[in-house]
Amino acid sequence: MSIAIITRGKDLIPWVNALKAKRPTLDLRIYPDDTNREEIEFALAWNHPLGAFRKYPNLKCIASMGAGVDHILKDPDLPEAAIITRVTDQNLARDMAEFTVALVMNHVRGLSFYKRQEHKHLWKPKPYLNSSDITIGVMGIGVLGSYVATQLNILGFKVSGWARTTKEIEHIDVYVGQEELDAFLGTANILICLLPLTKETINILNKQTFRKLPEGAFIINVARGEHLVERDLIDFIDVGHLSGASLDVFREEPLPQNHPFWEHPYINITPHIASITNPATAVSQILENYDRLRNNEPLIGAVSLTKGY
Ligand code: NAP
After folding, report:
1. Known catalytic residue at 272
2. Facing residues of 63 across strands?
3. What is the pTM of this model?
4. For this structure, is 164 an active site residue?
5. What are the DSSP E strand ranges found in 140-295?
6. pLDDT (tens digit, 9 = 90+) per residue, 141-200?
7. Is residue 278 pLDDT above 80, yes or no?
8. Which listed residue (224, 241, 251, 294) is catalytic?
9. Is 141 in the pocket of ligand 1 (CB under 6 A)?
10. What would the pLDDT profile of 242-265 be if each residue is shown by its tens digit?
11. Which of 121, 129, 152, 227 is the one with CA 20 to 30 A from 48?
12. How many A from CA of 148 to the centre of ligand 1?
């Protein structure tokens, strides 16, 4: 068996090096310069050209090079027989927690506020809340969200989570499904989106959602740009219902030069860097799945096509 890497615009050198370092004998092919595609049963993919998988008639597994699989599932021409997997590396959860803690603390201790004051040479302290007076709502309390929630709780924040199914996480109140969404939103002073992008979650950060948040709530989106209705965010910040947002992901990436987010004083932008897959560690899971596929064993991180994540 061989592995084909099928991507668009990704630097593949670290991936090739990591795979070769772990498995020097691996037969690695790179789309679109590969031949004999009928030999390929396992593909590694990120933002592939839509329809490319169909060129591999014997594909049995498509492994995402990151935690999300929306970039794979949006292909209307997916081979029905292929299992889709994603990376569930603990390093991703650690990096995501460090990043969201930084964004939360930046907001809570007013670092962006003081940066704006600094530009005007203003020395004007403002009162701040203690972490124990702030509730953080984590939308999507899966592999990343549950770790983020736990780390924020260790810092003293009250933390709640929202999921599709019931779960027990120590010190975290988990709300479940559409029925409990309003109750979840009603207490969230800071809302962190860590949902997968699916038919149910697209555009979920919209005016109906924002309206249900407490006055002055702050939005953090580190999931996918398509979760956010951009105009609704600007409107709700501009009328003062929301105090601002930190966004790491966008509907169009890179964020277009003329986008209003760039100039908005209460929106912080980062270029999709919350938690980047480290090839050196992720390839262990990928090669493990490659071996499992050959031995007809269940794969790690397999996603449900019905749920979409
Ligand atoms: P995950 O383990 O699959 O967790 C997803 C969570 O969302 C689960 O708790 C799930 O509920 C919940 N959920 C899904 N659909 C829902 C719905 N309709 N209503 C309520 N809850 C719903 O995913 P993950 O590994 O934590 O990753 C989350 C996302 O983060 C990824 O899909 C990716 O888009 C994004 N991400 C971003 C970056 C970055 O650098 N910005 C890096 C990595 C990942 P159940 O637990 O009940 O199933």
Report:
1. yes
2. 44, 85
3. 0.97
4. no
5. 158-163, 172-176, 190-193, 217-221, 242-247, 267-269
6. 999 999 999 999 999 999 999 999 999 999 999 999 999 999 999 999 999 999 999 999
7. yes
8. 224
9. yes
10. 999 999 999 999 999 999 999 999
11. 227
12. 12
